Structures are given as structure tokens and as C-alpha cells.
Amino acid sequence: MPKPVVVIVGRPNVGKSTLFNRITGTRTAIVENIAGITRDRNYLDAEWEGKHFIVVDTGGFYPESDDEIIKQVTEQALFAIEEGDVIIHLLDGKTGLTPPDIELSKKIRASGKKVIWAVNKIDAHSREDRLYDFYPIGSEELIPLSAATGYGYDDFMEKLVSLLPEYKETSLIFPKIAVVGKPNSGKSTLINTLLNKKRMIVSPVPGTTRDSIDSVCSYYGKKYLFIDTAGIRKKDKFKYSIEKYSMVRALKSIERCDVALIVIDSFEGITEQDQKIAGIVEEYGKGSIFILNKWDLMKDPENDYKFLGKELLRKMWFMQYAPFITISALDKRRVTKIFPLIDAILKERSKRIPTAELNKVLNEILSTVNLPGYKGKSLKIYYITQIKTAPPSFVLFANYPAAFNDFHIRHIEKILRDHFSFTGTPIRIYIKNKKETKKNK
């Protein structure tokens, strides 16, 4: 089962980002650059009293605007409502109830989702009388809250977790493969082709959301759970564009999977949206394969292959470890070649390197990197060890971890990959402090 998704919506400047930061325990801005690409950092994992969930922040809701960007922000907020399990409608206790608040509340009710109506910027008991201004919104319970100071926060969170659906990790032991990508990239066609391929035995597993269906299939005796994220369908009640992507839907599937098939429309080329989805896969530490679909539409396959290969290296530079394959899901071209790649990546993700072998490689690292000084002192690296798999993660112990920068981390990663491959999976490298100890006299 996927983690529950909590979506924060409201007018601009009501305090959505402040609440998001408090729930997730962060102090950073909601929008930041991740993995060398620009995308909205509007979701994070969160936990309260043992309940785990994903929180999604959204742009401000504007019911009427001629500005195209504002329209897109509003559409994405409405789509997030449809994808969420619990909706937080955040209201501004200082400005009072406004017509846009009423309009948004109607759309939330139309979604049929569980809702918390929270009135923000109420930071003392004496100010709770402001709640009376908001009862015309039609809610029987309004929760006073100050996202900035924490007033009322515990009661608010108690209410939130009481509405969360049950979350349990799937008990299925076979690999989970998510098929993700922007709308109209061919995800559904690929799933249908895979599940109807000769020698596959298919049994449906009920999905946990309306728009996702999980299918267990067997290919030459090996079983896989495919997580099919359905394409965005236009809903008359929300009137959003079918072209708008769903980061919420993508992260739901990615969070659950072992390997993600990132489906790209080859004819359209590699877009910023593809980069954003790939960035989520990398951030969650999942294995990945780039699926260049619709190859049947390419007029010059040989040159197109070279061009798109270079484009992948350039635009997906932060995931150069991920293999790619050209397919046509429509005419079933090369789709079965996906399975050996999945198997290889699963093996790489579970690979564990003995500490002795790692430290042999460490000697090479030390011979090829000019270690910087740190505040006039010599930097020393003591040893490296692997602490976990899926994704493979390593700790390198040194006397001054602060001396290491991104260049050093990337160089260490390159050498580890040169020796141990780790094809198709991200790896994590952490630098920790280990001070030299004096011998006992």
C-alpha cells in the first residue's frame, strides 16, 4: 500500500508553506534546486506518532485569472486535491473568509475527500473568536492554528492522523516495478503490452487508489508486480487540462517501487517534465530504466538513437548510471528486453561489497584525489564501509567531513562505479567524523 498523501491547499499567503515546513520538520524554502535540475520541491515524507505519510504543498488557489501561469498553478492545486487522501484547507485568520475560500471549499467537497478546515494565524486563545467568521464555509469543525508559532499544532496533528487511511508495506515479496512518465508517453500501452505478452501469466491485485492498478505477472517463471499509474483523465468537475502532469501520482508509485520505468515519448523528445519525474526517482533512491517509447514513429532510427542518447546524457546527467532502451509499446518492439534490465538492476541494488574490498578501492581514491586542507590542518581519510543496500549506501570516515564538497563526493562515486558497477541504481555516500584516538599509556 502507498503512504497516505496529505495535500495542503488554500489562497496565496495563507501560510501553506509555513505549515508544510512545520509538518515535515524542515526550515528550507519549498522551492529549491535538487540534483542539478529545477523542479518544485513541494512534497516530503512526514511522521507523527508513528504514522507515516507524504505531505504536498500547492500553489495558491486563484478562482479566476487570465494569467496562464496562475491558471496552471490553480489547475495543479485542484489536481492535487483529487490525488490526496486527506485535504487541509488552510484559511487566513487575519483576513477572514473570502469568496475564493468559498469557491475552493466547494471544489474540495465535490472531490469527496476527507478534509480538515484549519484557520491559520491564530496564535492565542484570545484570538479564537476569529473562527466565527469562517462558519459560513459550512464546516462543523474549524481548527485554530498558528503554523508560525505552533499554537494549536498538536490538536491539529491529532485530527490529521485520525483521518489517515491505514498504511502497511506490501507483503508481496516479488519486485515492484513502477511505470511512470508524463501524460501520453505510452505508459498504459506499455503495461497492456507487457501483461498480454506470450508466456506471461497475469493475476490482478486490487489497487489502493482509484487510478492505479497493480498486476502480478510472470515472465519465464519470475514474478513481478507492475504498478500502473493511469494517465491523467480530464474531469468535468475540475476542468483541468489533460496536459498537466501529476507529481503526486508519480511519487505515489515511485515511493512504493524497487525499479521505475521512466517512459519518454521519443518522438516528442526529452522534456523538462521528464527531468522532473526522473529527479523524483533519483531522490527516492530507486532503480531506474529510461524507456524511449514510440520508436515506430522515428524516421531516422540510427541517427535518432545517437541524438537521443546524447540528450539523455546531457539532460539526465544526474542519472547517467541508468540504462535506456528504445521500444515501441504499440507494435511490441523490444519490450521483452526490459525484463533482463530489471533483473540486472535488482541485483545491483542488493549488492553488498565487503569492507576489505572497499578499502582497497579507498587507496586508489587517495592516490587520485588531492585532499584539501581544512583550516590549516591536514585532511585524513580512515576507512569506508557499506551500511545498507537498496540503494547501496556507504560511509567514509574522515577527521574533517566539512572539507568534502560535491566534487569529491562525485569523484568517489565514479571510482566506486568503475570498480563495482551499480548499474541502474543510485548510490549514497556519507562522510562522517572519526577522530584519531590516543593510545592508552
Could you state the CATH homologous superfamily of the largest domain? P-loop containing nucleotide triphosphate hydrolases
Query: And the CATH topology of the largest domain?
Result: Rossmann fold
What order do the SSEs take from the amino end to the carboxyl end, as H and E?
EHEEEEHEHEEHEHEEEHEHEHEHHEEHE
CATH class of the largest domain: Alpha Beta
Characterization of this structure:
It is a single chain. The protein is globular and about 70 Å long. Helix content is 31%, strand content 24%. It starts with a strand and ends in an 8-residue tail after the last strand. The strands form four sheets. Strands 10-11-12-9-13-14-15 form a seven-stranded mixed beta sheet, sandwiched between helices. A six-stranded mixed beta sheet has the order 4-5-1-6-7-8, sandwiched between helices. It has a three-stranded mixed beta sheet with strand order 16-17-18. Residues 28-41, 198-212, 230-245 and 436-441 have low confidence and may be disordered. The protein is of the alpha/beta class and 441 residues long. It has three domains: 5-163, Rossmann fold, CATH 3.40.50.300; 176-349, P-loop containing nucleotide triphosphate hydrolases (Rossmann fold), CATH 3.40.50.300; 355-433, K homology (KH) domain (GMP Synthetase, Chain A, domain 3), CATH 3.30.300.
